[in-house]
Amino acid sequence: MNTKENILEAWIMVEHLSEGDIRLKDNNIQMIEFPKNNNFYSLFSEAISKKKLKDFQKGGIVLYLDIFKFEVIVSLLREKFNLKKLEEEINVGDKFSFALYFDKNLQLVDSMTFFTASNYILKNKCVPKEKEFLEYEEENKNYIKDLFNYSGHKNYVDFFNDAFRKLMNTYSLNLRNCRMKVLTNLEADAINLHSFFMNDLEKAKSITTENLDKYLLGIKKDRINLDSRKDRDSFNPNIFWNILQPKNYPIARFPSNPNYALSFMQQVAVNLAIGYDDEKIRSVNGPPGTGKTTLLKDIFAELVVEQASEIVELKSKEIKDKVSCLENTGIGKMPKSIADKGILVASSNNGAVQNIVNELPLISGIDEMFIEELRNADYFWNISNSNISVNKNQCEKEEKFWGLFSLEGGKKDNMNNILTSLEEVINDLKNNYVSNKNVYNDFKKQYEYLLKFKQEKQIFCEKYPLLKKLKEEYDYSIYHYQQQKEEFENELRIIEGEYIEYQQEANVRKVQIEEEVRNTDEKIIHNLTEQNQINLSIDALKLQKPCFFSAKKIKQDYKKRMGSFSEELIQIIDKNRELNKYKHSLEDEINTILKKEKEYENKIYQKRKENQQIVEKELDKIKEIDESIHLLSKEINAASVKVLDMNADYNTLQMDNPWFEKEYRCLQSRLFIAALKLRKQFLYENIKSIQAAQIIWNKQKEYLDNKEMIEEAWNWMNMVIPVISTTFASVHTMCKNLGKKTIGYLFVDEAGQALPQSSVGAIFRSKQVMVVGDPAQIKPVLTLDSAILRMLGKHYGVSKEYLSDEASTQTLVDDISRYGFCNGDKWIGIPLWVHRRCRNPMFNISNAISYGGNMVQSTDTPGKAFWFDISGNAIDKYVKEQGEFLRNKISELMKQNPDINDKTKKDTIYVITPFKNVAYCLSQELKKIGFTRYDEKGKVTNIGTVHTFQGREALIVFFVLGCDERSIGAANWAVGSANPNILNVAATRAKEEFYIIGDKRLYLGIKSTIINESFRILDRFNYSNNSNGTNKYKS
Hints:
five-stranded antiparallel beta sheet
């Protein structure tokens, strides 16, 4: 599932199914009438002769054979795979089964024989694998080649007619389903039959680049959520602080009005794009009016200045390292560091491509203070104005552009225009330019000054983290001090408590000991008294000691009494010895108690002393930090620098841009102008390489053996014209000889409209990729409905991320972008949130139904909006009553403002609808009052489906819903809960007034959250304005 090969195979089949389109209404495509005598040779030969081809023209004729309605294929697939028919509006028309090309001599050009995959499916009733289809095509091409292989054995006319009749029989051709077209140039005119992307998709199978692999395989790094709402769990202010440090800001800026800085998220996007990290592919998601083109201008300016800074460092400004093919042919090898900053802008939308390259060099987009400086810089000012298409309201001498900054490339005519511009540049450098090598030093001085300016801001910026750190340290020190103080007090209380408890026990014991000592002393005294008495008794007895001659009994009696006294004396002496011993023990106990009390007192004293020392030390530290905070705060406050405040409310934050003021923006713009001066001098010193580039690019076939020369030719063209644009459809044509990673920066505009396969060739050729768009607006235009796409995805083992009605270049790059935003359950690229186009309630409708309320409005000036409840019976979704109501309403407005009908002035009103038929019928109805406008090709420009108006704006928009109860499925497809895109685009085309025309009961009845929320916003808006008397429409 989702292997590189499977994805590419699936996309190739989708592209095969897009091949073979034929517009039967094209006046140059003719029916093939059955000729007289079956002489097809004469029929085709006469058609070619009417074209009056010149001898040098390699013209001929193409036959479109077996034409059928593509709806037949769609129905076949639905039936085979049991798919329900959907209400989606898809582009289905007519297809041819195969096409044969003959030169003007009616010789088959077999290499151009072309079979469609639709033909295979029609014949075989199944979807082929790529290999199966190629085998089928090869088999049929070989058959036709052999069929028309003329051996010379008979007349060629007869041979041709026989071969053509066999062809008709073999393929059961009915001439009513066949057409022919005479071509002036077979190769150039035939290209529209093939898918524009097929060759690059085939190439991609064998190409490996980091960007391509990420794109195809969804390889992602850890995502970083740029959620700037501080009330969300995903809010991480440190991310923004790091990205928006002054050192990460661009050193250059496009010279628009310096009074206005980029918005918060615009600046985040620019800083990321110019090298904050090492990501090589990223996306920006910009809702309508959020300044996607504005941020691209600043990125382009930065790249141009960085190229200039690289040029300044070159020892020799003339590039002497050459790439050569022939002995006398060579082209300067552009230093990689310069070439890698070349710019290619691509889009699937031709209008978007033209808008960007036409807007970049407009004088009207430059602030007045820089216009003369740009004029003096003269980056081919006159050449840029030499090809202005002059309208009736323009004079021929009007100067519209400030320089040759951007041109549209891609298709052959545009590339010829670029080559012509190169020739004019060469002539201007040779004949008009005065060499001035001082521009290198002038630029370097300015560049270094701005680097210093940025560095000073960076040093200042770094004081804020230091201040923050000091404050955190201060808070921690206070906290730690309080904690320590509390711990010390607790420890002291414990010791004092223990002491008190001990003292209480000791005092009791002391009393007991004193009592025991008294008792002991009394006993000792008593014993001593008894001892004295015994001694006296002994002394008295000694006086009665019997003599030698006393009777034995007397002697015995004396001895007995003396022994008794001695015994008593010994007992008393022993008692006193014990009593004295006990008394000494009591005295020792008292001493122990006194000693322990002293120890407690010393411990308490020491603890208090220690605590006091620590507290004083902590207080000194706190005081020191406080003084540092005071000094740093004083220094910061004195500077009056706008600081990044991530604690600001959401709206204020989104409108903010920190650190730099108008002064820096002026310096940035002037550095850009200095870079253009330097660039012109550099081109002058390398004029030979520019001449070589013109020759090589114009004759690429001669240099296919050394494609490096073609790559260098591109580098030099891109050096002359800093921004080249192309549609994806023309990438292969323009870049067919450019290999992988040969383009510096690829910027994809309106990427939400680009089919994912369309950008493959541009991506693998580019080193850096940035896609810009909004998936919440118009989805890519499809030729197959979503159910069939899902079936093809299942058939090829590819998930809906790559093959569905929602898959686009934007969604795929969104998914792999490291920096982005989690919008509900979807990960999108870097979001832009400040809207500068619409008034309310259009802004509120868009913000509510598509952007989760994340957008911020730059102005709160109210507009006008209302739902006109008009119903009726619908024919193919068109309600006649709605058309008539709109005609009358616009008639009223035209009377009030005649400019509305002035074809020389910009459109005031757009009429938008979800449905093609409604758009057509409205154009016819409004034609009656002269409102409908047409371009030079006869295409209506001010009425259409939302696809017509992507990227455009008008003061007033009418959104006509159409439908009735019988087409409720179509109504649900257009504005159902699952599809907010159409209403979002319609509402955001209106700058001041937005009016819905539709059956209110019908649309509220489909229970669409999109419609219900929009109606609620409209209702509340009009109730508020009616209360204030500011809205003339009343329900």
